[in-house]
Amino acid sequence: AQSVAQPEDQVNVAEGNPLTVKCTYSVSGNPYLFWYVQYPNRGLQFLLKYITGDNLVKGSYGFEAEFNKSQTSFHLKKPSALVSDSALYFCAVRDPRQGGKLIFGQGTELSVKP
Amino acid sequence: GAGVSQSPRYKVAKRGQDVALRCDPISGHVSLFWYQQALGQGPEFLTYFQNEAQLDKSGLPSDRFFAERPEGSVSTLKIQRTQQEDSAVYLCASSLESGAWGYTFGSGTRLTVV
Lengths: 114, 114
What we know:
Chain A is mostly beta strands. Chain A has strands spanning 3-5, 10-14, 19-21, 24-26, 32-38, 44-50, 56-58, 64-68, 73-78, 87-94, 103-104, 108-113. In chain A, strands 2, 5, 6, 10, 11 and 12 form a six-stranded mixed sheet that branches. A four-stranded antiparallel sheet of chain A has the order 3-9-8-7, with no helix packed on it. In chain B, a hairpin with a 6-residue loop joins β4 and β5 (44-50).
């Protein structure tokens, strides 16, 4: 069965430090991978995606993610965290052989302190 | 419109009441998805339309849930005889095609069943 795991419910980082939000997936074949961010009482906002090509993907707001096929991971990273990055982050996977639906992880709450 | 619009933003229903949630996708977007997001969880797929055709309804939790998109634009998610476990945020997303380039999510409808 397809699944996405975000092993950390919460990540705490000091402003200016690098941050990593972890994601692993279980999908056969070549999945499409996404990161979304959710602010309180708002919908999901797209950050970045991996479809094919370079394993390092750059996205919005200075975020990037590295696709690692052997480890089935797609960790989200940012070199220098901002307080305004504090939000809920979701990793998602789409099996292109099974239509357009996304399978989401349970989310990771990122807290960046000044 | 500029984004995906959902209405109402908030809905309180008494147990047993029927509710209808509306989604206005971005004009021209072919694909439309409904997701259910319980408190503290990631969104879970409910159903998917391509134009007016409902191609996947595997995520609908029971036959009390029904979705339609009769003219291939606006979609309505209807929940009959609401129960407390139906309390969640219902998210709608649309995309130009089958979602290869990402999806745009609405802000959601928060349904509380009392």
